[in-house]
Amino acid sequence: MYIKKLSNIDKVKLTIGTDLWHTETLNGKLYEVSMHDGPIGVRKPIDTRSFDQKEIFKSLAYPCSTALAQTFNVELAYEYGKALANDAIEKDVDIILGPAINIKRNPLNGRNFEYFSEDPFLSGCMAYNYIRGVEESGVLSCVKHYACNNNEFSRNFISSDVSERALREIYLKPFEIAFKAKPSTLMCSYNYINGVKASENKKLFDIARDEFGFDGLIMSDWGAVNDTITSINAGLDLEMPYSKEHLEKAISHINNNKFNLNALNRAASNVIKISEICKENKEKQKISMSIEDKKALIKKINDESIVLIKNEGKTLPINKDSKVLVTGLETNIYLSGGGSSRVTPLGEFISLTDSLRNNGINASYYQTTEWRDNKQECITDLKGCCFEALKYDYVICGIGENHTLSNEGSDRNNITLSPVEVELIKSLRKYAKKLIVIVYTGAILNLFEIEDYCDAILLSSFGGEYVNESIKDILLGNVNPSGKLTESYLSNIEEYPAYNSYHDEISFVYEEDLNVGYRGLINNNFIDSIYPFGYGLSYSEFEYSNFSVYLDKDRVIVEVTIKNNSKYDAKEVIQIYSSEITRTTYRPIRELKAFKKVFIKANEEKKVTICIDKLDLGFYSTGYSKWILNNGLYKIGCYKDALTPIIEKIIEIK
């Protein structure tokens, strides 16, 4: 369809959806595009035309984005996107509203379970591969939320006030990386950025298109548009969902010069382009993954995402001939984040007790906790459970959060465990021979309240409906844990760099600037009180040697030999960080620049080569309004996590 054939009124109609989930067809002239929530599972209402969205089709419940990122495995991110695309094809969905790639600046953000990391490079890499998996399968992706949607508190009205350099290096960087995968659509956020509404932020739209090479359609988050005309003029293409008031107002102003007609033509053309792409995709789409393939992928992601936090005296893996007592409601129920990412699970949830029993383990369950009014309370027989624990070799206790605590639209109140959870674990410690705690959570919790009372701790993010199958295999040693934290776990909320930054009813001031997450923690010497970004134990011990760093034209080449000194086959994440020594301005002490997950058999030695684009060692200069790479000395290091160096070298860039 040629844009010149349309009246201006028809063009305006194209820029606003027709209901909650569909685009305008102009009486059948265009293909009707359907779009639905899908960052961590396709969430499609049974009645897509109604504004009542209570009934949802059942769908595979995938591990949340935090879990996916904790794998540090970009190949799994690609397969994840591919699986979601297959689900979308089955459910007749053209655009998946995901991935969500905002930075985990504040651990209290209610939507953190939807996001990948506190680190922009890791977030961008995972998003890049997720997008490839979706788009190469004939479904369109929608990268969101552009930009600085780092809190849910008053999200429609509050301004994220951030410096230009932090904006570029931290908050826009994941989008810059993700756009290289050529996503078809981009969703703006609700909030204001430095006083300008995201849906009206011409500066950010221009950066996306002119600097980052984004050439798709830009849509609004649902209800994020205050004024249709101002938004279209600024660079927005599509307002979602339908608003009768906004459409009538826009049409009434079409002939009084309030619309920039070039902007209107661009917006309408982009809607037409997406419609034509979706129509063409529909004719070529093929299902390439069975339900069993997707279940196997979910299992693989959970296998690689679960983080072994503590393993005192090699408590894990457990002896398969032992007797095991399981308690804690979280081991028995499906847990997920709330809001647009909460899907209705397709399958029947398998409890941890049943997972163990199905694998020949002598396991029993004793109920000690229940949810009441969205709070966990110890309302059953704790005394009886403690006495029962004396009969068992291991006690496994589940704790965590549900969708009412990690939820779109509101922030969490704190990172503390409930008093009941702490009491439960302290009580069990008195009677259990070995106490293992499983943490089911989509966001940071203060694990230091219980650390001294546990022999082992496994951290599982919201892993979907089959998460306990992976937990069981890690407990039994069938799977060697390889997950790494993608955000730093502290013992005190006040130690987080962003926590003490000023905010009120008008704005969040990003006072920590570049020092988000581990970048700020290193500066503030909180080394002894956290499980840092990149942290995660294994049943194996790894030996690093023959570390070398050299320049090859425009690339920094890192080579290292790694040996698995154990009887277990293992996967290890090699993490490469950099710091500029002869700097001319402030640089964070350490920044992740590369990572690679490698499989190493028991007692095997493997040489690994990692390449870094030399320009990625640079910084964004607000003086020159561009990225700068200084000549001088740089430290390149291989680290166990963001705080623990293994081996480092200094190179000179000329």
From TrEMBL:
The keyword Metal-binding does not apply. It comes from the Bacteria. Pfam families: Fn3-like, Glyco_hydro_3, Glyco_hydro_3_C. GO terms for biological process: carbohydrate metabolic process. Keywords: Hydrolase. The keyword Transmembrane helix does not apply. GO terms for molecular function: hydrolase activity, hydrolyzing O-glycosyl compounds. Residues 572-642 form the Fibronectin type III-like domain. InterPro entries: Cellulose_deg_GH3 (IPR050288), Fn3-like (IPR026891), GH (IPR017853), Glyco_hydro_3_C (IPR002772), Glyco_hydro_3_C_sf (IPR036881), Glyco_hydro_3_N (IPR001764), Glyco_hydro_3_N_sf (IPR036962), Ig-like_fold (IPR013783). Belongs to the glycosyl hydrolase 3 family. PANTHER family: BETA-GLUCOSIDASE (PTHR42715:SF10). This is Glycoside hydrolase family 3 C-terminal domain-containing protein. It comes from Candidatus Onthovivens merdipullorum.
